Amino acid sequence: MEKNDRLLTPGEVALMFRVDPKTVTRWASAGRIGSIRTPGGHRRFRESEVSVLLADLTVEANQQQR
Amino acid sequence: MEKNDRLLTPGEVALMFRVDPKTVTRWASAGRIGSIRTPGGHRRFRESEVSVLLADLTVEANQQQR
DNA sequence: CATGAGTAGGGTAATTGGGGCA
DNA sequence: TTTGTCCCAATTACCCTACTCA
User: Which residue is nearest to nucleotide D4 (CA to C1')?
Assistant: First the structure.
């Protein structure tokens, strides 16, 4: 399902989740999110995977009550 | 639909409504407000949705006067 | 090669989640 | 029924310095 394999930096992912870039780094270290390493050690994340996380985690309450 | 996807933390939303952050959490659990979860389990809220809710409060205040 | 922005580390403080109670 | 509060464990945010990226 990789129609778009664009790689995102920790800062970009942090913006999407409204968290600190450091937090994104911890997610990668903890294996909660896949990451690619540059030869220099910096992490890169697949946009497709990040999008799935955002979309999936958004579903918390579909049935609204009033 | 989502022109402004800025996300807010529970604490920020709590300040806007002048309630305890715990209350905001309960709103999310009850489905009264949509929420996004970080991979770590923390919630984030869409500013656009929060704004709508605040606007609703304003409407109620107006209706109270008629 | 030099520069500025971003990132990797590590350490510590602040928020948050969840249950239960008032 | 909704909100606030106390508890503890987990997650996240901010501090620093050194290194990588473009």
Answer: B20
